[in-house]
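Hi R.,

Here's the input for the zinc ion complex you asked about:
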Amino acid sequence: MDEANEVSARRTRAAASGQGGQQGPHEVEVRSPDTGLRHHRWTWCQIGERVYPTRRFLARNWRCPTRGCDGGMINVFPWENPHFAPRQRHPEYPDDPLEGGWYPIL
Ligand SMILES: [Zn+2]
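And here is the predicted structure with zinc ion in place:
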């Protein structure tokens, strides 16, 4: 069994046992303390093309954590959703990206 399958199997077992454990990469898990809305785990900013945990955007009222970036709510996209940039063009980008990693759209 390769590593990816092993991880997948562990997630499946955790879910089946009802113990919670690590959530799958596509599960929504972040809840805004202000609005109560749930969000994807990762959020990508189109200005600097970097991705951060959504909680970091929430903590800043959706302002981008990148130093010097003026990206805000209208500039960000849910990373896990394959219909949004940049993963619409790059399905090979990882479900769990590097925090602050640069993932260009082109
Ligand atoms: Zn930004």
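One thing worth noting: The mean pLDDT is 80.

Cheers,
M.
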